[in-house]
Amino acid sequence: MAHNVTLIRGDGIGPEVTEAAKRVLEATGVEFQWELAHVGDAAQDLFGTPLPDFVFESIKKNKVALKGPVTTPVGSGFRSVNVALRKGLELYACVRPCKSYPGVPSLYKDVDIVIVRENIEDLYAGIEFAKGNPETEKLIKLVKETKGDTILMDSGISLKTISETRSERIVSFAFEYARTHQRKKVTAMHKANIMKFSDGLFLSVAREVAKRYPDIEFEDRIADNMNMQLVKNPQQFDIVVAPNLYGDMASDLCAGLVGGLGVAPGANIGDGIAVFEATHGSAPKYAGQNKVNPIAMMLSGVMMLQHLGEPKVAKRLEKAIADVIAEGKALTYDLKPSAPADQIAGTSDVADAVIKKLEADNSR
Ligand code: NAD
């Protein structure tokens, strides 16, 4: 029976990388019934909103989506479609594996870290008060009256909120993930020394949750130190659980440790619902050039296959991708930094090469 999946092509490089991922997924022999849903600028032009209700309805119905990146206007314009989707569908866990594949030029050869990022709250939730608005002034006055702290009247404010409920949920998710994926350690990333009521709460909840999982080692690290440790000695980390903003930054940092955003997949997971997307954004300057690396999106497809209950096929697809990387021929510019232009593959060439590997595997 075909798997019903909502397909969001995104914008910028999104359509190219999702097409490549869709082609290799179909080449596995698993059947998909794709339901196309537009978001961002394309939806704005067609339906007058960057995030039509149909997108939510489609994902709620199908329970699974494969999503390309979507541009978020900087500073002004519509708010992030990505954040709205995660919040609207309560996709509370962002899972981002950063794994070394032989053949990828990278700083390290033996990294295997999974970032589990809280996906709904924290500074990233986008609860903001614009400079000069009456409600901003009200909030500034309230802070002065209740805390005695002065916030300048010409300030903009973004709220950092961290709840016990959502901290408990994400840390439990990280430990459950550790158990089901035979992982040994969970590290909580925080800045509880400074933000005692938000990160401090996250940490105290993490310590409580850890007691329920005596089979998994638990430790915590202050975020600034953790960044240094990640760069110097990443092999010491296994699963990293973090509030939203630190998790966002740590996942790009860890992608950099294993060869860059071109090889960093991801999933946004809620209760009974999941949206698979690469860590990278829409890289607008490369849009439409058949140039960028589709492997991050393909590996997100591997995660989707696992989620859909197709673990053997997921393994086969991951192996085909790993073989193409190891062979070193059909790779995009980011994985061949010193190769001459005529030896660099385009986005669709990488998909062709992975499909060939799958076909060779099928005929064996
Ligand atoms: P980006 O991830 O789009 O690109 C940063 C750089 O990383 C690119 O210039 C490129 O050099 C490299 N890169 C990214 N993807 C690559 C790939 N597949 N292959 C090879 N190299 C790749 O980050 P940005 O430039 O900060 O963001 C661009 C837009 O994307 C912004 O509007 C941002 O808000 C949005 N964004 C969306 C998502 C999402 O949809 N989930 C995630 C992150 C950023």
Tell me the helix content.
Answer: 40-55%
What distance separates the N and C termini? Answer: 24 Å
Characterize the largest beta sheet: strand count, sense, and whether it forms a barrel: 10 strands, mixed
- In angstroms, what is the radius of gyration? 21 Å
- What's the total helix number? 12
Low-confidence stretches: none
- Ions and ligands: nicotinamide-adenine-dinucleotide
Strand arrangement in the largest pleated sheet: 2-1-3-12-11-4-5-10-8-9
Globally, the shape reads globular
Mean pLDDT value: 96
Number of beta strands: 12
Name the beta content range.
15-25%
Order of helices and strands: EHEHHEHEEEHEHEHEHEHEEHHH
Structural class: alpha/beta
Short account of what is shown:
This protein is α/β, with parallel strands linked by helices. The chain is 42% helix and 16% strand. The strands form 2 sheets. Strands 2-1-3-12-11-4-5-10-8-9 form a 10-stranded mixed β-sheet, with helices on both faces. A two-stranded antiparallel sheet has the order 6-7.
